[in-house]
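Fold this sequence, please.
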Amino acid sequence: MSIIHNLLVKTVQMMPENIVWLFSKKYIAGKTLQNAVDTVKDLNSKGILATLDVLGESITTKEEAIESKRKALEVFDAIVNNKLNANLSIKPTQMGLAIDKEFAYQQILELVKRADEINNFVRIDMEDSPYTDLTFEVYKRIYEDYSNVGVVLQAYLKRTSNDAIILNKLGTNYRLCKGIYIEPATVAYKDKQAIRDNYMKTLELILKNGNYVGIATHDKYLIDKSYELIKDMNVSKDKFEFQMLLGVREDLRDKINKDGYKIRIYVPFGEDWYKYSIRRLQENPQLAGHIVKEFFAFR
């Protein structure tokens, strides 16, 4: 992160939360499940799929993790009751991975079992590198009995293409993204083009093996390259979808949808919106600068 970028994010962090919310709400469905349901209904009406995420991660007690699981189970009820074309995304630390791996496994297994009952799907998100192997371990154990679960690969990690080679053998369902956590140069690429190159290398490995993948990016370069790869490899449309975050690059979202490809939007919601917002700002310096500019314009 550049010095100016860092200063912009720190400036936003010093603002009152209600001010930050004014600018963050474009990227968050709202603070309640009903807000999220309304957002997904709107997306579905446009032929766009969704994945719902109850915000909250790095919890510190089992009680908090159990409450997170309860909220996630409510998402499945909402999907059924409202006939939403959506699935569920979860953070493994939100389910207690940082506290007790076995406990987190049981928590996530319960969610996958519930999803299986309603013919739905659970995406286990990937967090920073200390949790990569633990997340894969939990995923592999669950996948032995349930196929309606998938994981995430992050292209900025140097290990990712090797992980794809191993996970391909299981028939893994992926979300492939660039990655947003701050990692040391020993484990992560720092050069923009190096990350892009690793993204496309990994995507090709996945598609060649016939695995399903969510091509998760807002980078037009990667979207264009993915279009080319899909065409060159003659990949069936039932083997991939594109994925984006709520409120980001809606022009590209609509183009992908118009082009006849599946597009799924990551729809976060919940009371724990602030940490998510700051993480998005760290990823997007232009947004942080915009918030600071607009804030002082109001003064």
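The chain has twelve helices and eight strands. The chain has one domain: 29-269.
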